Amino acid sequence: MFLTDQNLAELVEWRRKLHRMPELSGEEKETAREVRAFLSSTGADRIVTELGGHGVAAIYQGKEPGPTVMFRAELDGLPIEEVSAVPHRSAVPGKAHLCGHDGHMTILAALARGLERKRPQRGRAILLFQPAEENGSGSAAVVADPKFREIAPDLAFALHNLPGIPLGHVSLAEGPVNCASSGMRIILTGKTAHASMPEFGISPMSAVASLMPALTALGASGPMNEGFAMVTVTHVALGEAAFGIAPGRAEIWATLRTLTDSGMKNLCERAERLVVSAAKGTGLEIEIVYDDIFHHCENAPEAVGHLRRALEAEGVPYDRGNLPMRASEDFGRFGENAPAAMFFLGAGEKHPSLHNPDYDFPDDLIGIGARVFMRTLRDLLG
Fold first, then answer.
1. Same CATH fold assignment for domains 5-177+297-381 and 180-294
2. What percent of the chain is predicted at pLDDT more than 70?
3. In the chain, at which end, N or C, are there fewer CB atoms within 10 A of the end residue's CB?
């Protein structure tokens, strides 16, 4: 193990400090400052800041030519009130690290401690702390940032903790592992009227009533194969909160989910045709807006091979688990220009689920995740 007991104790305290100070997607200014301060004590050759927003990347240069290998963690928390009784619970009302990004950052911080002691022999190691993972906008902003050219990887790796599987057990597979998803916001605008004379208005009520089941029927889960599709209506608003007004406006929010990006294009087109059909002849105006767009994550065989060898060398048990999973992850874009892979690290079979108000990252995973990443790094860069 490349970390001492003192290192691990320091890292646990740092993780808990991050847990107390969560920031939402795009607002991670103080988290980024804390990360930068930690990295500055590890002898990085360069620290890139304000990357795609509040992103931070540390560069550790080897003595000899070689590949650029990137490891990614996420900076952001969630807009959920934490109900945990742990002493390090969130100090920010309505916000909390309930997905484990504080733990993921700490695993990369552990790598930084290892690189402080022993630099890569060749190539470059990049530790990327990505902003805005939770809403799917962060990786796109990072990749579009001109500063990303300086750290563009030849291989990219990430992990995510996963409650529901044994503590320290890994799920890993080639091919798609996380679904593409898109938030579809449908805005239907008609004309209000007095509630006693609804015939003088243009109400979206009938269109809304028909669209909710029709959208859901486009994809009601099913096997996780190439044709997988799922539509979940997450929010509906109709008219004003008043008894005297017949509604003139409505919004439907739905999350569209497919195994691949190509499947998402097809599902969006089908959903849009339904909206047009439901509004046809009603006089309603239609606006469709997409938010929280996640590309699917695909594990490249080459990158998976490196992780498998590291897992076996470190004695960490693994199998393919329940992959691919329905949930989305904002790591897919990093695999579009370089082989990339993500593995899922068990947080315990009975551990509270991700995004639950009583979730907390298991500190025992810091050492396990760091060992796997460090073994991968040393195998590739020496």
1. no
2. 99
3. N
Q: Before 324, cis peptide (omega within 30)? A: yes
pLDDT over threshold 70, residue 271 = yes
Handedness of CA 170, 171, 176, 178 (dihedral sign): negative
Does 99 appear as a known binding residue? yes
Q: How does the average pLDDT of the chain come out, rounded?
A: 97
Whether 54 has a binding-site annotation, put simply, is no
Distance CA 218, CA 183 (A): 15
User: Does residue 268 have a known ligand-binding role?
Assistant: no
Per-residue pLDDT tens digits for 128-170: 999 999 999 999 999 999 999 999 999 999 999 999 999 999 9
Q: State which fold the 180-294 domain adopts.
A: Alpha-Beta Plaits (3.30.70)
Q: Is 297 annotated as a binding residue?
A: no
User: Looking at the whole model, is its pTM more than 0.85?
Assistant: yes
CATH for 5-177+297-381 is 3.40.630.10
* Position 221 pLDDT exceeds 70: no
Q: Say whether 101 counts as a known binding-site residue.
A: yes
